[in-house]
Write a structure and sequence with these properties.
The complex is a heterodimer of chains A (275) and B (258).
Chain A: H1 7-36, H2 47-50, H3 55-88, H4 91-102, H5 109-120, H6 125-132, H7 144-168, H8 172-180, H9 185-196, H10 198-214, H11 217-222, H12 230-239, H13 244-270
Helix pairs in contact in A: 1-13, 3-7, 3-10, 5-7, 7-10, 8-9, 10-13, 12-13
Chain B: H1 2-27, H2 44-50, H3 53-85, H4 89-104, H5 107-120, H6 127-151, H7 155-163, H8 168-197, H9 200-205, H10 213-223, H11 227-249
Helix pairs in contact in B: 1-11, 2-11, 3-6, 3-8, 4-6, 6-8, 7-8
Classes of the chains: A mainly alpha (275), B mainly alpha (258).
């Protein structure tokens, strides 16, 4: 193959991006780590990272993990049956239908969240309707429940799309073969469909869990100013407190959790199942 | 019976997804400022929105950044994908590993890391910094969608064209470009939508005084929602809906292949 005269010319062609990636991906990340492990005088310290154990920060981290976990679980439970129904329908019609389910993904993320502020407020749309029907009003704005609702609403399409894609790629013949060999529908599901859709499930979980774990906009808008997630704490360090060292230290903690999440997922992927 | 349950399930999820958006659109025509009662039909929020200078400039900023970031990231991403074929596998996997970082990492960390870099370089903040940040997080999406196309290219056609006297550029245009084009187009579309939708990275790299639609909405929300924002949501929703319908109607679309 002589697409390139030699390795050098290929390298030359790739070099603008290599330079770009080093300047805008590697160096900035190194700067976060540098700020995270130094103090104002530039001396090496692990104090910024260790401050995650202070009760306020630890509580925010714990709350973030919990809410992200609950949201991811709800998204999965809603999206999996949906993916199965959509992939079982015949193709021509379902392109539009599938588009309909992932369309909100293209709508501005803040507008989607703002919608729920409007619906959930004390004198908002839902309560007005409930009052009109003489039903008890609900009061979940500025609670963790509202944040979970916002997360599920925002990130559900990110769970639907990969699960649907992996389910619709399963060859019908494999399912039919399983049935011919005497498997009932539960067995077919547990031993064929579910294992074959694991890659889709895993990328769905990643696409929901990480943005949910690290969000600050959803909690600001739906959680009031009282419920702080780890994302809010980090955001405040950079935009209000101007303690870049602490902000970077906490970001390192966050990255460790993202890495852990990736490791757990890649291990479960290799074992061929997460159940 | 099973079919009925399936239909009901689809309907419930669709209502969950769209009822809020429909509510916003209805509220955008409500002449009462209160969200709890209907004060009659009006278009005044739309006229106010169109005469709002801040919204207009935020819209221009958003579109300009999205278009420029898409062009730059598509060109850089495509060239890099082609160059990757000629690199040894070790370097190739290092480059792919680095490219994956912005996709795997949390947006908030990408945002603050770029903010630290821009402050360090004294680049100021505003248009340029946001554009650089957007190109950075868009390139991985372009490469993700172009790479499979490049991998499945048949290079013998290219060599044959050279043997028959074509210049390398002409041969590239005639033999390789048509094959990778669907990947390039879907990568560019991905980049464009990512750029339009981004809030977190823009928020950290914008500095003060420069707003895109996302950051403008965030500021508005903190101050209290004005009905003009509902009008804005309604317009954005209709634009997105029509754009997607056009894309899905066009033949050989590959938009879904995320």
């Amino acid at each position: 193959m002589k697409l390139f005269k030699n390795r050098q010319s290929a390298f030359l062609m790739a070099s603008p991006y290599i330079a770009w990636a080093v300047i805008f991906i590697v160096v900035p990340l190194a700067m976060v780590i540098y700020y995270g492990v130094t103090d104002n005088s530039g001396a090496l310290t692990f104090e910024n990272i260790a401050r995650i154990s202070e009760s306020g920060y630890l509580k925010a981290l714990y709350r973030s993990i919990l809410l992200a976990f609950i949201s991811t679980l709800i998204c999965f439970l809603l999206a999996y049956p949906l993916g199965m129904i959509l992939s079982s329908m015949k193709l021509t019609r379902n392109t539009y239908l599938v588009t309909l389910f992932i369309l909100p993904m293209w709508m501005n993320f803040l507008l989607r969240t703002l919608t729920w502020m409007t619906l959930l407020e004390g004198k908002g749309v839902i309560n007005t309707i409930l009052e009109f029907l003489h039903l008890p009003t609900i009061n979940i704005i500025n609670t963790s429940g509202a944040i979970v609702l916002g997360m599920v609403y925002n990130f559900l399409p990110f769970m639907i799309l990969p699960i649907y894609n992996s389910l619709s790629r399963i060859d019908d013949n494999i399912i039919n073969a399983a049935r011919d060999l005497g498997a009932d529908s539960l067995q077919t599901f547990l031993r064929i469909t579910l294992p074959l859709s694991v890659p889709g499930i895993i990328s769905g979980i990643t696409m929901v869990f990480i943005p949910a774990l690290t969000t600050f906009a959803i909690s600001t808008m739906l959680g009031g100013s009282k419920i702080l997630l780890i994302g809010n704490i980090i955001e405040q360090q950079f935009t209000q407190v101007y303690d870049w060292h602490l902000g970077s230290g906490l970001s390192i903690v966050l990255m460790i959790f993202i890495l852990l999440n990736m490791i757990i997922e890649s291990v479960s992927d290799k074992e061929g199942g997460i159940f | 019976m099973k079919k009925v349950f399936e239909r009901i399930y689809l309907a419930i999820i669709l209502i969950f997804m769209y009822a809020p958006i429909v509510t916003l659109i209805i509220l955008s025509f409500n002449s009462s400022k209160s969200r709890a009662k209907w004060g009659g039909f009006t278009l005044k929020w739309y006229t106010r929105l169109f005469s709002d200078q801040a919204v207009a400039s935020a819209l221009v900023n958003t579109l300009l950044i999205a278009v420029l970031a898409t062009i730059f990231s598509t060109i850089i991403g495509t060239i890099t994908c082609i160059a990757m074929i000629g690199l040894n596998s070790k370097l190739r996997s290092v480059i792919m590993g680095i490219t994956n970082i912005p996709m795997i990492n949390a947006d908030i960390v990408t945002g603050i890391s770029l903010m630290l870099l821009f402050r360090f370089l004294h680049l100021g903040s505003g248009f340029t910094t946001i554009l650089l940040a957007h190109i950075t997080f868009n390139i991985p999406f372009v490469m993700l969608s172009v790479m499979p196309r490049v991998k499945s290219l048949n290079f013998y056609v290219y060599e044959a064209a050279l043997d028959l006297g074509a210049t390398p550029l002409y041969a590239f245009r005639k033999t390789m470009l048509p094959d990778i084009m669907p990947g390039v187009v879907s990568g560019a579309l991905m980049a464009f939508t990512m750029s339009l939708d981004d809030f977190i990275i823009t928020y950290f790299t914008k500095g003060s005084g420069f707003e895109t639609l996302s950051t403008l909405i965030y500021n508005e929300v903190k101050r209290g929602i004005q009905p003009e924002i509902y009008a804005l949501s309604a317009i954005i929703f209709v634009v997105v809906l029509s754009l997607l319908m056009i894309i899905y109607r066009s033949p050989n679309n590959k938009v879904k292949e995320k």
